[in-house]
Amino acid sequence: MSKHTSFRVGGPARYFVKADSMESLKNALSFAREKHLPHFILGNGTNLLVADKGYDGVIISLAGDFSEILDLGNGKFKVGAATPLGRFARHTLKQGYAGIHKLAGIPGTLGGAVYMNAGAYGQEIGQACTGVTVLDAVGNTRELSADECGFGYRRSVFSNGNSGAGDDNGKIILAATFQLQSASSQGLTAADLEAELAECMAKRKATQPLNKPNAGSTFKRLEVGAAETPAQLAPGYYIEQAGLKGYRIGSAEVSTLHANFIVNAGGATARDIKSLSEYVQNKVSEKFRIELKREIILLGKF
Ligand SMILES: Cc1cc2nc3c(=O)[nH]c(=O)nc-3n(C[C@H](O)[C@H](O)[C@H](O)COP(=O)(O)OP(=O)(O)OC[C@H]3O[C@@H](n4cnc5c(N)ncnc54)[C@H](O)[C@@H]3O)c2cc1C
User: Fold this and answer.
1) 96, 124, 254, 295: which could join 190 in a potential S-S bond, CB 3.0 to 4.6 Å?
2) Does residue 217 have an active-site annotation?
3) pLDDT tens digits for 26-46?
């Protein structure tokens, strides 16, 4: 799985299936059932830490038919779960629509973004989503309204109750629909949106350790009310105050650039990364009595 995750760690999957159509997805699910194995839907593996022993089940990676963007007119889009979020965000921007253009730098798929309601720079995928098409646990295709998706800060009905083992609550995200507003309705042009995106990308480049394998933010922002200033809602503030920037376990390192990122400094194991995240949680709890909640999803036995 080290080839399929942005941390570049993780042992082998017992089976790995690329499902490029509804038929092949259903076949993969039947195969897992016949073998009495669990399955796991993989996006681009950019929010995921897979155990060194790997995953004793069937990894299903959506592709092909699940990568389509349909323009339905007037800012309406239907997008397949395997579509890279960046491709969709740039597509809307080029058509002159605002709403998710600032998410173009998030390296995941649309399905992964919906699963955890990915967001950045004041935009969240759930804000523009009008519905999600899912395959439920008994094999029926269903349409969920945006309300039924329960979008909140880095969570949705798909990830709620997540045990940390990548549980999709039995629902596989197949596609999602969006309604965006034209830039002109907000007094903006497509060039303005380009400029906004360029600013976000420059901020990412300046503040994130993009030259070393990582999985984005390790911990979720604190809930409003838990701290006094916006800076104090950021886990990185406490991690840095605890003196942990640059702290290492094995080859896993708290980034010296962004304290809420753990990087694989070269040859890290999944165990190193998990141990380091727990060490950080313990130190921040001891020092500040604050409980950091992990954003990164764990898969397999550690
Ligand atoms: C450099 C970097 C920067 C990042 N910046 C941001 C940021 O600004 N904001 C942000 O929110 N995140 C950020 N991330 C984290 C990550 O990119 C997002 O969480 C992204 O949405 C994960 O998508 P993915 O396709 O990689 O999902 P994966 O990591 O493959 O999977 C994540 C979870 O989603 C589930 N899932 C994926 N697809 C489906 C599906 N079709 N149906 C059901 N479940 C599914 C998986 O089972 C798993 O539980 C960043 C990561 C990196 C490496």
Assistant:
1) 96
2) yes
3) 999 999 999 999 999 999 999
* Residue 289 annotated as catalytic: no
Q: CATH 3.30.43.10 spans which residues of the chain?
A: 13-63
As a CATH number, domain 65-186 is: 3.30.465.10
CATH number, span 13-63? 3.30.43.10
Domain(s) labelled CATH 3.30.465.10 in the chain stretch across 65-186
| C-beta 236 within 6 A of ligand 1 | no
Establish whether 251 is a catalytic residue.
Answer: no
What separation in Å is there between the alpha carbon of 231 and the centre of ligand 1?
24
Class for the domain spanning 214-299: alpha beta
Q: What is the pTM of this model?
A: 0.96
The answer to whether 218 and 254 are in contact (CB under 8 A) is no
Cβ of 126 closer than 6 Å to ligand 1, yes or no, is: no
Closest Cα to atom 53 of ligand 1: 215
Q: Which atom of ligand 1 is nearest to the CA of 82?
A: 41
Each residue of 207-232: pLDDT tens digit? 999 999 999 999 999 976 766 677 77
